[in-house]
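Assemble and predict.
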Amino acid sequence: MEKYEKLEKVGEGTYGKVYKAKDTANGQLVALKKTRLEMDEEGIPPTALREISLLQMLSHSIYVVRLLNVEHADKNGKPVLYLVFEYLDTDLKKFIDYHRKGPNPGPLSPQVIQSFLYQLCKGVAHCHSHGVLHRDLKPQNLLVDKEKGILKIADLGLGRAFTIPLKSYTHEIVTLWYRAPEVLLGTSHYSTGVDMWSVGCIFAEMVRRQAIFPGDSELQQLLHIFRLLGTPTEEQWPGVSSLRDWHEYPKWKPQNLARAVPSLDLDGVDLLSKMLQYNPANRISAKAAMDHPYFDSLDKSQF
Amino acid sequence: MAANFWASSHCKQLLDPDDVDVLQPLDRERGLTQEEFKLIKIHMTNHIWKLAQQVKVRQRVIATAVTYFRRVYTRKSMTEYDPRLVAPTCLYLASKAEESTVQARLLVFYIKKMCSDEKYRFEIKDILEMEMKLLEALDYYLIVFHPYRALLQLLQDAGMTDLTHFAWGLVNDTYKMDLILIYPPYMIALACIYIASVLKDKETTAWFEELRVDMNVVKNISIEILDFYDYYKGDTCKGEPVKGIPEERINAALNKLATK
């Protein structure tokens, strides 16, 4: 590991610390993701293996963070695996926070929101077309290059390749705020729609500079959603009341979505409403989202 | 693992036939012959298969493990990478990559139960150490596609689902060769369907024509498979595992490597 000089710790990933470091050979900045290996038990954690193999497959898209190298090292006799990623200076959470409570608070410009959302859809479409669900999309997992205005998907530790049709996956995955209602309600089959719900929540958050559904428990999370979008009915979402964790809820009427994102234009509100469809089958796909009129004013040739 | 073969690392990793089944210089120095190299790979494929049946994993985990095993030896010598350790470690790694992890201690336990020969027996730490070396040898490309799903879809499409059992067995046997490193999985599936249909007197010319695939490739794969059966026929019948390699020949070959 003499090849890299650690500069500072920048965060905790799903299964280890992340450092900012410099490649001593060429001065290039990299992110080192350290994975502890409990070698006396079960070797390399399957989550790390999964991330490595998925990244090997996906990282030729510029909208997915690039895995540059994998380094195997010994630390005090204990084996450690370092995933070496390209370095980006910030993530979308910090970027939004900066616009909310930085020295010059103010909204993200509509152009930035539009461009970031497009890149996010492009990255998600790339994952989905390779048969990979991310399952944990949230602003912290979206890396941002402020200078170049580039957004990339990171942290695929929970991502998993899917084969259609899907069987049940473990439930404890998505951070509550971005978790799709079908996951919250305990569905046994879920698919690309779970990521698109998260994309919708992230879209709204860029506009509002705060989370649209900030629940602190699974029930609270559902109630946040229901209060804004109305309590779902069998008519709009066939089968919802037979999902495992469905209970009788207060019957809220849907509110006007535009009021939750007052600075967003009509096309934007329309796209958001298509991402926040209750019935996962009706939710817009990443690929279709990229063709939505909301992006008509965007110069797509740059992507 | 993933749904799209064409976009996968497996697709990009397909090898030229000339780069597969090539004896490494170090192994050649030890006096290993091309034939023995092939035999060891067949034998170890069977070893993985038997071990997998003990620990009860899905078919695709076995197929992935064998693919790793064969890919390793396009790059590494058997002298440095003892096949008797690489084989179970490939199964271990494949079980993780395919999300049905088998504990290392279970593998160690069943190997001891299966093999009386000391040279096949390893400890957990040996497997874990080899796991890391294999990852590097495989360049961390772990996603592998197999012919099974394509086989079922194609047989359905051809209206020949009655051939499923037979063709499935043929696909299993293709892992005793290096075909999975060279050809797209659906082409291997087509070759197996082709053989099955010829042997069972099914008329498939029109169906194959409609597929618009390169029939020369399908036929070449088929010939390789049939040659393989011819050569290693021993007392096997088609679609059944090859059992015809005498233990002494394998041991003589492995002894040349003199690992452990």
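Chain A touches chain B at residues 39-40, 42-44, 46, 49-50, 52-54, 56-57, 70, 72, 79, 129-132, 160-164 (CB under 8 Å).
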